[in-house]
């Protein structure tokens, strides 16, 4: 005996053609409910969002029969508003940009990349950091060192050596050789060939560590003894505060 569509188990994958559905579509995006039209969702045929509602859909429904998309629902309203009116969002730019990339809505992606926030991050800051050798790896190394030293402590610190030129790198190595400390615990950044200064890089380090959820500050590190150069020329102490 066949089961009618009214008695299909809830939450199952939808396998019927969307052409049999109402042009009005109810969505559950990460727990946020939206109502729109098929034409709005399919406005940009080459997008991943349009593909979700074209032909044989590979979407599941929630307990109320709404199509479910497992993405942050808060920012989908900006995606939907753009599809409806071509209005480019001016709020939550970074988060909306991530969603635009996921749904592969090319016109929105390009317009968001022209915004000051995305342009500054992708073209200016990211391009600079790409010229700093092992930048991402060094950020992770800093965090590992700080966590290893955090046992039964409120704070832990990491010494960072920042050098902009090859000449400074050689001087920094000489300074490291004169330090009375474990040189393996010193994280070295640089050299690089780009306009931003050492202070700019220090700000980037703080920004990216904080973006991972850590509370951090930094100041010049002054060696107590046995140091051949002014330590604040190269060395900085990054302080992680745990509670």
UniProtKB/TrEMBL annotation:
- Record's Gene3D superfamilies? Potassium Channel Kv1.1, Chain A
Q: Which domain of life is it from?
A: Eukaryota
Tell me one GO biological process term.
protein homooligomerization
Database matches in SUPFAM superfamilies: POZ domain
Domain named BTB: which ranges? 23-120
Give the PANTHER family listed for this entry. BTB_POZ DOMAIN-CONTAINING PROTEIN KCTD14, POTASSIUM CHANNEL TETRAMERIZATION DOMAIN-CONTAINING
Name this polypeptide is given = KCD14 protein
Q: What is the lineage of its organism?
A: Eukaryota, Metazoa, Chordata, Craniata, Vertebrata
């Amino acid at each position: 005996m066949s089961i009618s569509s009214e008695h299909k188990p809830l939450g199952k994958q939808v396998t019927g053609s969307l052409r049999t559905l109402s042009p009005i579509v109810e969505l559950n995006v990460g727990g946020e409910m939206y109502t729109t039209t098929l034409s709005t969702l399919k406005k940009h045929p080459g997008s991943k969002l349009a593909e979700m509602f074209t032909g044989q859909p590979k979407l599941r429904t929630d307990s109320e029969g709404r199509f479910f998309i497992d993405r942050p629902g808060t920012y989908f309203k900006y995606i939907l508003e753009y599809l409806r009116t071509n209005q480019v969002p001016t709020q939550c730019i970074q988060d909306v940009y991530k969603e635009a990339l996921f749904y592969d809505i090319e016109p929105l992606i390009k317009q968001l990349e022209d915004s000051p926030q995305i342009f500054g991050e992708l073209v200016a800051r990211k391009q600079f950091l790409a010229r700093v050798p092992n930048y991402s790896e060094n950020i992770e190394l800093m965090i590992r060192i700080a966590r290893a030293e955090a046992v039964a402590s409120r704070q832990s610190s990491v010494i960072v050596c920042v050098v902009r030129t090859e000449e400074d790198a050689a001087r920094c190595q000489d300074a490291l050789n004169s330090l009375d400390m474990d040189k393996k615990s010193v994280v070295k950044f640089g050299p690089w060939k780009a306009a931003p200064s050492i202070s700019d890089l220090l700000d980037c380090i703080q920004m990216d560590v904080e973006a991972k959820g850590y509370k951090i500050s930094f100041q010049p590190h002054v060696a107590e003894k046995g140091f051949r150069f002014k330590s604040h020329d190269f060395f900085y102490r990054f302080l992680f505060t745990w509670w």
